[in-house]
Amino acid sequence: MGKDEVKVLSMWASPFCTRVKIALAEKGVAYEEILENDLFGDKSKLLLESNPVHKQVPVLLHNDKPIVESTNIITYIDQVWPSPPLMPACAYERSRTRFWADFIDRKVFSAGRGIWMGKEEEQVEESKKEFLDALMYLDGTLGDKDYFSGDSFGMVDILLIGLTSWFSAFEKYGNFKVEDHYPKLSAWIKRCYARQTVSESIIDSDKVCDLVAMVRQMNGLE
Fold this sequence. Notes:
Glutaredoxin; 4-stranded mixed sheet; 8% strand
């Protein structure tokens, strides 16, 4: 599909945009990244027209047709550019992939945000427990495998690894280390970061921590 025009409406700090960029890199799909200043509500006309419901990034524009929501976008990418596949061939394993995709989307980032946005120690500790409990289940399903689906880097890996650039901020304000609790999951993170598709797409965690500090200050938390 060499004639396809692919654009990604993105924002530098969004881990959900990182997911989409990793998926496109895995498929070898060339794209134009259009950076939005979406952090403080400065949304472009193109973004508002492309995603009028949620009004947020990421948006994939494939031949000017918008696809929204990162997990939905990656599913679309996998169907349009089927090689290499991101979903297992087996129907049962595909159902498991969808389950863990939904689990990650519901649990991980929201709990982490609760850590660094917590106003009281009790709130922080509650969110920290929620976050570590979510990772407990993910660590358990990963087990001793290289990737969540086995030997192949796939959908669940992309959805979770895209969020990990924010883990340093969660650790800083929650006063913990993921590696101390879940060494297998920590080893998986390092394994994924060694992939060129990930390393070239992932956000600088130091910049994320700087951003979090600024947002906390703006909200009177510093």
